[in-house]
Amino acid sequence: MDLTTLERLPLWIGGRAHAPTTTRYGEVTNPATGEVVRHVPFANAADVDAAVRSAEAAFGTWRAAPPLRRARVMMRFRELMDAHKKDLAKIVTQEHGKTLADAEGSITRGIEVVEFAMGIPHLLKGEHSENVGTDVDTWSIRQPLGVCAGITPFNFPAMVPMWMFPIAIACGNTFILKPSERDPTLSLRMGELLKEAGLPDGVFNVVHGDKEAVDALLVHPLIRAVSFVGSTPIARYIYETGTRHGKRVQALGGAKNHAVVLPDADLDYATEAIIGAGYGSAGERCMAISAVVAVGEAGDPLVAKLAARAKRITTGPGNAPGIEMGPVITCAARDRITGLIDKGVEEGATLVLDGRRPTIDGHPDGFFVGPTLFDHVKPSHAIYREEIFGPVLAVVRAESLDEAIGLINTNPYANGAAVFTRSGHAARVFQQDCEVGMAGVNVPIPVPMAFFSFGGWRNSLFGDLHVHGMDGVRFYTRTKVMTSRWPDDGSAAPGFHMPVMG
Questions:
Q1: Ramachandran quadrant class, 131 (left: phi over 0; alpha: psi -120 to 50; beta: rest)
Q2: Where in the sequence numbering do the catalytic residues fall?
Q3: Does a structural domain hold residue 154?
Q4: CATH number, position 319
Q5: What is the pLDDT of residues 276-296, one digit of tens each?
Q6: Which domain range does residue 428 map to?
């Protein structure tokens, strides 16, 4: 099936395209042109229930499959994702707008989680102690939860779902993905590739939709765990609603990532790194740098270098050669970003580079915002306080490293932060004192590899466990502790007293 030619997308339930019962549909647009490319169904409670019932029916057999067999499905899925990477990237670029190179890179980062999940036979191993008491052994085992759900954002339609379902499925769970309705097609394509890889029908399902579908997932009694990535207000809602209905929840929220530049830093290197981290994917990354803290004498030369480099960024449709930055996801997103730029000017920040009205040849109706740079931004300004999620860098001035770290630690978000310096001592102070979930030294976007876990602190995470890595294995399994004894015939059984080992 060529999903990109369909006027109306299906759901994916029971290992096949599934016609929804809902009559509500939304538009999927190409952000570079503003054109509607297809329509996506907004699943209702009955559609969600059909997916859950399919996943529940598949769970018993799938959980009983040896971990090595589950790993081999992941191996074949990894090969298929890699073989089809360029075509998958085209789907991402058409519906999201990011450049083809960026889309391919994000798919590769998702594939890395699949590679981690391929090691599930080892990752599920428990602990064992012999003779904890006389002829008594104790050991732990990890077992799957059941039906799990993932609710994912528009900015990474391949990578973020792959933070979740490969580990959940490899652990023996079944899975329902609710992707963003803005760019839903890739999730269906991954369903097809999972089936081709040998995944049994019903283990992976896709339901599209809005709040109605989300709420149906959060309250369904057969769903055991929910993973979410998105904005902080919705993350809090997901966490509170899901846990109130007895589910295990990990909900990753918004971010305001800082890059601290010290006077001793290599400014050319820092500039290039910050430009990519701030304007790559049009700033629509949960780990994008949006606040630059220029310390002391670094301020003026850093701003000059950032402005000069930002002016050379090529903006246009993501599938065109030589383009570094594509459009933002929707017209509403563009208008919100430009409104915040307006607010920054009104509140007195210095607008060094204005990207509000870029001219993109041949694409007058695209959702474009050009690179925008502010200087002398105050913590009270809206462009500092709010998560812009667009190509806007806000430079804040600080007198010391301690002051810069104080800005990071008093921000309500705590996803990631970075420092640029040649000083090992300064780097260690930053490592010890900055209160975020992921930090980098001369690395602007410190997204960990798949065998570590991804997540923030404070209002950037609701729940106890991060995604992928061993936290992902812990989230999608529960531990059972076994204690056994095989006494000889006629040996004394325990009495009424509290049993004591020894």
A1: left
A2: 286
A3: yes
A4: 3.40.309.10
A5: 999 999 999 888 899 999 999
A6: 257-441
